[in-house]
Design goal:
57% of the residues lie in helices and 0% in strands. The protein has helices at residues 40-47, 53-69, 76-96, 103-127, 137-151. Helix 2 (53-69) runs parallel beside helix 4 and helix 3 crosses helix 4 (103-127). By secondary structure, it is an all-alpha fold. The termini are far apart. The chain is built from five helices and no strands. The longest helix has 25 residues, at 103-127. It is extended.
Length: 152
């Protein structure tokens, strides 16, 4: 069996179709174009350091993700307070050292720690036991389950 080395119909061998569309640079919108779901106090603080609307919304999105993880997404005042504290901590770190490579990731880590501390403080207030006092992870799981059952 002899296989043909090349195809005789060359149009089928073209790998990429020609793209005649013009590529445009995305526009950078300033802080006045931030979506309405982001609190204005947070926008005002972040806009001093990051003027791009997309970046400000990304910081708030990280706040929403961290709040959801610790069942605090419905408490917008508390979310805003924690986000402002975390952002101030980020700015302090950025000004004092050059160790932060990704500011949004660092901000998210600070948020997670703050929401986790708040969550465990609520558990301690409800049940009177701190998570660090028990070495068994099943205890933490049972506390989570009891907490979520009370919320439902």
């Amino acid at each position: 069996m002899n296989q043909p080395i090349e195809t005789s119909y060359l149009l089928k061998t073209e790998k990429e179709p020609k793209n005649n569309k013009r590529k445009e640079e995305p526009l950078e919108l300033d802080h006045s174009y931030v979506s309405n779901h982001v609190p204005q106090e947070f926008v005002q603080l972040v806009s001093y350091f990051y003027s791009d609307a997309k970046t400000i919304e990304e910081f708030w999105h990280m706040t929403q993700i961290a709040a959801y993880k610790y069942n605090s997404e419905n408490e917008t005042d508390q979310m805003q307070k924690i986000a402002i504290e975390a952002f101030k901590q980020l700015i302090r770190k950025l000004k004092s050292t050059k160790a932060v490579r990704n500011p949004i990731a660092y901000f998210y880590g600070v948020l997670q720690n703050k929401f986790m501390r708040r969550f465990y403080d609520e558990l301690d207030g409800e049940y009177g036991v701190l998570p660090g006092s028990m070495a068994n992870d099943s205890w933490i799981h049972s506390m989570f389950m009891a907490y979520y059952e009370d919320k439902l």
